[in-house]
Design brief:
The protein is 52% helix and 15% strand. By secondary structure, the chain is α+β, with helices and mostly antiparallel strands. It folds into 3 domains: 334 residues, Kinesin (3-Layer(aba) Sandwich), CATH 3.40.850.10; 123 residues, no CATH class; 95 residues, no CATH class. α11 runs antiparallel to α15, α14 packs antiparallel against α15 and α21 runs antiparallel to α23. The protein starts with 6 loop residues before the first strand and ends in a 14-residue tail after the last helix. The structure holds adenosine-5'-triphosphate (ATP). InterPro entries: Kinesin-like_fam, Kinesin_motor_CS, Kinesin_motor_dom, Kinesin_motor_dom_sf, P-loop_NTPase. It holds the Pfam family Kinesin. Its main location: cytoplasm.
Length: 773
């Protein structure tokens, strides 16, 4: 296959069974699936309905009967092989909330049959590694989530910290400081996934008791080093992204509020961006793809229209009350089928970690050999030019040899100790030696013994390090290779057999149909009238099809209107929040402070947020003038001590003192007490906010209550504060007066009054409520 041939992303559909709740509610199934030859068809709609059912065709469709294993085999197994070849691969689950995305991607650990795509990919990767005898592998794992447009590291001790996405021209998008763990086997990788899963943002909604509130991405990086036809080692790096997207949800169905609503807004916005990217990629007229509009699309940039082999698993529910959402998911999935990627093998990348590991292992082996030969590894390595000596030593992992070496070292260490003990005993028993001489000889002996032991310990440490590094680099075994080969052949034969059976069944069906048709034909065309009926019937069918298409167009328009309404709701929600914040800023934060913050703020693309420019460093205030000494004095001294000394007082406290005049670094004041009249606008804003709060608890509260409420707040303040702010009583009086005036006005006049005060455009007319709060 050509390396850069473009190919469409593969789209498969999975429909879950009716849930217990749906069955209890009496919901009906509206989804039918048919697998035909190499395609799968889906019909959505009920038989008795006026409108004909909607029909879609995909690469593969799976109904509720499909198990986790078969789904993996038929949708994702192939991509593991591709990743091993050095391609990047992405498997992502997309669909409405509660349709089984997490069930598909993660599943359950027990029983084994319930394991999801992710665990099965891990298993497949390590099995493939086992079957590759002549290659070396390094496997790493990382796990992140995008929660409310913030990237979080699910494997970090602080998973709530925000991470930043960057882009490199050669390797594309990457997340800075994302942790990654080297895994030696399936169990280790599964443990990494379990750790991340515990940190994922989950929550209960009306549609799903354990709903993912974030998009999560598990990345498995597989580096493989193999001897190429040129006789040199080549490294391939494949990355497999396993993505569990958060589900789209309609506010009207989930009844979400507060935190859940905020999450839902962000989820829907990022999924809308995903749909826009799909739209742009499949629209031949579109020249711009809005990847940068959301963190999700930025992260999936390579998987959608990039250099990755991608599988999209679209999850749907079968119940009638979700028909609109099901059709919507199928429409986007159907469009995604036309996205073209150009997968390519990542060969010999500069930043391959496996290369670093191999070099380090070679160096350690060389050092070990040199120590054994009695050479100083540092000197010899440098003299021979490092890498050259590394190339000379055994390249292959040889566990047996290392074990022998370890055992030999233990014995040698014991021998050194034994020999030294014997020698020590001999010297101590020596009669012809003076005590001092004995001591000297014993010290020398101890020194020699320590040096020898040190050298052996160093070798032991080297072996330990070497073993640790070699353990991380994986190599397959011959036995496994054979077993895998046989298993593969068996599977292949089974598949061919199944295909043959299916083909035979299809041929028999076709023959039966042709016979039936012939019979019908002979019957129908008995006379001309029957022929006319036949043609009319055909015409009616065409007419029905035409009407079906018309209905489809109408429904698409309705869907579009619904989506638009949803967007309006979202905009309204955001607008309301913005108005509240603007009102708070306008009424309670001084103009110059707002200006200062505005002037110093700038939009940070990486953080997707506003950040303040770093403040200019305060000019260090110069210290006060250094006090000078009086004429004839060595140092500055106080008047009193001068007189005391003059009178002959020898008290040490009248010695010269170190007097320094240091100004205290007092904080600058940024607030001021409000001196003027309270404006209508301020009192109206207070009343409005208090009114809003009260309205949430009771239907309506008389304005006197609000005034009493504000009275009580003021009375609760400490006396000292009251004394410091004599104007507050006056302000309150004015607010009371305003409120009572408003109360006397009819309802619509009040509204106009409030609006008028809001519409005031002359800033001079709006005294700020500085120091009010
Ligand atoms: N194919 C299936 N067979 C049996 N049960 C399923 C299947 N798919 C989903 N379920 C069940 O449906 C429920 C919702 O599934 P899941 O949490 O995976 O949905 P989701 O699409 O990830 O939802 P969200 O987007 O809210 O995270 C779970 O209880 C799950 O066990």
């Amino acid at each position: 296959m050509s390396k850069n041939k473009s190919e469409c992303i593969q789209v498969v559909i999975r429909c879950r069974p009716l849930s217990k709740k749906e069955r209890e509610n009496g919901n009906e199934k509206v989804v039918q699936m048919y697998s035909r030859e190499d395609k799968g068809e889906i019909m959505v709609g009920r038989e008795g309905d006026e409108e004909p059912p909607k029909q879609f065709t995909f690469d593969k469709v799976f109904d509720e009967a499909i198990g986790q294993e078969q789904l993996f085999e038929e949708s994702s197994r192939a991509i593991v092989g591709n990743v091993l070849e050095g391609y990047n691969g992405t498997i992502f689950a997309y669909g409405q909330t509660g349709t089984g995305k997490t069930h598909t991607m993660e599943g359950e650990q027990k029983p084994k049959e319930m394991r999801g795509v992710m665990s099965r990919c891990f298993e497949a990767v390590f099995n493939c590694i086992d079957a590759h005898k002549d290659a070396q592998f390094l496997v790493r794992a990382s796990y992140l989530e995008i929660y409310k447009e913030n990237i979080r590291d699910l494997l970090s001790p602080n998973p709530k910290n925000k991470l930043i996405m960057h882009e490199k021209p050669d390797s594309g998008v990457y997340v800075k400081d994302l942790s990654s763990f080297i895994c030696k086997n399936y169990q280790e990788m599964q443990a990494v996934q379990n750790t991340g899963r515990k940190n994922k943002s989950m929550g209960e909604t009306k549609m799903n008791a354990r709903s993912s509130r974030s998009h999560s991405v598990f990345t498995l990086t597989l580096e493989c080093s193999e001897l190429g036809p040129d006789g040199k080692d080549h490294i391939r790096v494949g990355k497999l992204n396993m993505v569990d997207l958060a589900g789209s949800e309609r506010q009207s169905k989930t009844d979400a509020s507060g935190q859940r609503l905020e999450e839902a807004i962000k989820i829907n916005l990022s999924l809308t961006c995903l749909c826009q990217v799909i739209s742009a990629l499949t629209d031949t007229k579109s020249s711009y793809v809005p990847y940068r509009d959301s963190q999700l699309t930025r992260l999936l940039q390579d998987s959608l229209g990039g250099n990755t082999k991608t599988v999209m698993i679209a999850n749907i529910g079968p119940a009638d009350y979700n028909t609109d959402e099901t059709i919507n998911t199928l429409r986007w999935a159907s469009r995604a089928k036309n996205i073209k990627n150009k997968p390519r093998i990542n060969e010999d990348p500069k930043d391959a970690m496996l290369r670093e590991f191999q070099d380090e292992i070679h160096k350690l082996r060389a050092q070990l050999e040199m120590i054994q030969d009695g050479k100083d590894p540092g000197v010899t390595m440098a003299a021979l030019g490092g890498q050259q000596i590394v190339e000379k030593v055994i390249k292959k992992k040889d566990e047996k040899k290392l074990k022998e070496l370890e055992e030999k070292l233990i014995i040698e260490k014991e021998q050194i100790k034994k020999k030294a003990d014997e020698e020590r005993q001999r010297i101590e028993q020596e009669m012809n030696m003076a005590d001092d001489e004995k001591k000297q000889v014993l010290d020398k002996l101890r020194q020699q013994e320590e040096e020898k032991e040190k050298s052996k310990t160093k070798q032991q440490e080297l072996i330990k390090k070497l073993k640790k590094m070699e353990e991380k680099v994986l190599v397959g075994s011959e036995v496994m290779k054979e077993a895998k080969k046989q298993e593969k052949e068996l599977k292949h034969t089974r598949k061919i057999l199944e295909k043959e059976n299916k083909r035979r069944e299809r041929l028999e069906d076709k023959k039966q149909m042709a016979d039936d048709e012939l019979l019908k034909f002979n019957k129908k065309f008995g006379n001309l009238q029957e022929e006319l009926d036949y043609v009319t019937g055909k015409l009616q069918k065409v007419w029905q099809k035409y009407q079906g298409v018309q209905n489809e167009i109408q429904e698409q328009q309705e869907e579009f209107l619904r989506d638009r309404q949803d967007m309006y709701d979202t905009i309204f929600e955001l607008d309301t929040q913005l108005k509240l914040k603007t009102s708070i800023i306008e009424n309670f934060i001084p103009d110059d402070e707002v200006k200062k913050v505005t002037d110093n703020s700038k939009w940070n693309e990486e953080l997707n947020d506003w950040v303040l420019k770093p403040p200019k460093r305060f000019q260090k205030k110069k210290g006060g003038n250094r006090p000078v000494s009086a004429v004839g004095m060595k140092r500055p001294t106080s008047e009193y001590s001068r007189i005391a000394k003059g009178l002959g007082d020898v008290n040490p406290r009248f010695k010269f003192e170190n007097i320094l005049d240091l100004d205290l670094d007092m904080p600058e004041r940024t607030t001021e007490d409000y001196q003027g009249q309270v404006s209508e606008r301020v009192s109206t804003a207070i009343n409005m906010i208090l009114n809003q709060n009260e309205e949430e608890q009771t239907a309506s509260v008389p304005i006197e209550n609000l005034i009493n409420f504000s009275d009580s707040i003021l009375q609760e303040k400490p006396v000292t504060e009251k004394a410091a702010r004599p104007k507050s009583a006056k302000r309150l009086k004015s607010a009371k007066k305003k409120a009572s005036t408003l109360q006397q006005l009819p309802d619509d006049t009040q509204e106009t009054e409030t609006k008028a005060s809001h519409d005031t455009t002359n800033p001079e007319d709006i005294p700020r409520a500085k120091g009010l709060m």
